[in-house]
Design brief:
By secondary structure, the chain is an alpha/beta fold. The protein has ten helices and 13 strands. Strand 11 and strand 12 form a beta hairpin. It is elongated, with a radius of gyration of 25 Å.
């Protein structure tokens, strides 16, 4: 079982664990978005209070065992391979490390129809592509009912991209999990080559152009992280872009990052204009002190023009940031 959550996730996962049946015939792998400086062992200790599962922050090659709860370490991707966990610090996906998509895709490739994937509360859209991979590889997809989630964006993004098996409030998900674990495993289906290739790329923390061209088409867009060219992943409903280094962005994330970078650039421009005005005020004082009236008049005019540009730019920034706050959550 693979579980992904973001904002509100610790509380949601803790509640889900408390409702699971005793001694479940499964291993549980959890990715929670967290800051690079956070301590995953603190999260492990919180979960220990709600479950009899063996809670572990794994190292690379830690064996996967029934009854284990494996929590992705902060600032590392967690993946699977047959019988074990892979931990690496490869490039961020959607600016997250650990990434839910990374875990879900690897589980889908190596465990196929035996995977049960759950998306819980969270912001933005990490997990959408991973859930698509789970379904394409024969696994079962469960999403927390957006009306029940503390933060609904992540569940909504998944539901907008793919038909899942169950959409349930948190307190009903545990019952479905119990039923699924006592039911026959669904039949296996062929694993799409592009999903296999993407998992291999993430495992190796390296990408060849030949590999990338098999799963993606070259675009004119530039990676916001490294400045390299972006390739659009084929046959991926969420619409994702991957660069040669390995950074991955959904279309929604690209829009948000570009918006942030544009705002930062505008603020830099405003600061530079203010510095120009301040310098000219120093020069104006020097011209006045020296009795250079014509030069002083020139500086006064330039100061007025600069202040006009500063006011216009700050008004634009105010309108722009208000627009982002008002409409950002509507992007789907």
């Amino acid at each position: 079982m693979v579980i992904g959550a973001s904002a509100g996730g610790i509380t949601a996962v803790k509640k889900l664990l408390s409702l699971l049946p005793e001694n479940p015939n499964a291993a549980f792998l959890v990715v929670l978005h967290q800051s690079p400086e956070s301590d995953s062992k603190i999260i492990r200790d919180i979960f220990k209070k709600s479950t009899t599962l063996n809670c572990i922050v794994p190292e690379n090659e830690t064996l996967i065992q029934r009854g284990g709860l494996y929590i992705a370490p902060s600032n590392y991707h967690m993946m699977t391979k047959p019988g074990a966990v892979i931990i690496n610090n490869g490039p961020r996906e959607h600016r997250y490390r650990p990434s839910i998509d990374v875990l879900f895709r690897s589980a889908a490739v190596y465990y196929r129809s035996r995977v049960i994937a759950i998306i819980l509360t969270g912001m933005l859209d990490d997990g959408s592509s991973g859930m698509v991979a789970v379904k394409r590889c024969g696994g079962t997809a469960i999403v927390q009912d957006p009306e029940d989630a503390e933060f609904s964006q992540m569940p909504v993004h998944v539901l907008n991209r793919i038909k899942v098996d169950f959409v349930l409030p948190l307190n009903e998900i545990a019952n479905i999990v119990g039923n699924l674990l006592s039911s026959p495993v669904p039949p296996e289906v062929p694993i799409p080559d592009e999903i296999k290739t993407e998992v291999e790329i993430t495992e190796r923390i390296m990408t060849s152009i030949d590999q990338l061209s098999k799963i993606a088409d070259r675009t004119d867009f530039i990676c916001p992280d490294c400045g390299g060219g972006l390739w659009k992943i084929k046959n991926d409903p969420p619409g994702r872009y991957r660069c040669h280094v390995g950074h991955v962005y959904s279309e929604n994330q690209m829009i948000r990052v570009h918006s942030q970078q544009l705002e930062e650039s505008l603020w830099v421009s405003a600061r530079m204009l203010e510095e120009r005005r301040n310098m000219m005020e120093v020069m104006l004082k020097s011209a006045n002190d020296a009795g250079h009236k014509s030069l002083a008049a020139l500086y006064k005019e330039r100061i007025r023009e600069t202040e006009k540009h500063i006011s216009t730019l700050k008004a634009l920034l105010s309108d722009y940031t208000e627009n982002l706050r008002g409409k950002g959550d509507q992007i789907a």
